[in-house]
Amino acid sequence: MSRPSDLRSAAELAASKPHGHKMKYMAGCRCWRCKRGNAAYEAELQRKRELFGPNDLVPVDRVRAFLHEMQKLGIGYMTIAKHVGVGKTPLGEILWPGKSGRNHIRRRTENKVLAYKPTLDTMPLLVKVPAAETVSKLKQLISGESQKLSFVATD
Predict the structure, then answer these.
(1) Do 69 and 94 fall into the same domain?
(2) Fewest 10 Å CB contacts: which of 30, 70, 91, 97?
(3) Higher-confidence residue: 46 or 7?
(4) 79 is in which domain, residue-wise?
(5) Are residues 107 and 69 in the same domain?
(6) What is the pTM (predicted TM-score) of this model?
């Protein structure tokens, strides 16, 4: 895997990390903490591969269509990002592909975004929800309560 030319070296990136961090191990430290941290990191990656399958790149077409549908309902990409636990910047780049030209996304991120279901708990505060059904149920409850009260009072 190639590294971008403007990325600092592993030794520079690891300078601020504590022993036991993967970056320290990549920089060449082989103390027991760094070996154990690297082993734990690799074991976690392997466990996620076995549990969730591959995390390869997939096209963003399905996610882009999903985000457009959610926008029609009044749910923005930032709200979705917050509730599913992914970064908002990649979702914004999918909606508005500018200079970044994001055409692919990781499979697990796609699955998280597509698993979002709009409910009252996950909708933005400013979205207006039709209240006709709720009002009719409230009227039904109120009329039922008044009948119960009159029935209880006559006993």
Answers:
(1) yes
(2) 30
(3) 46
(4) 57-114
(5) yes
(6) 0.62
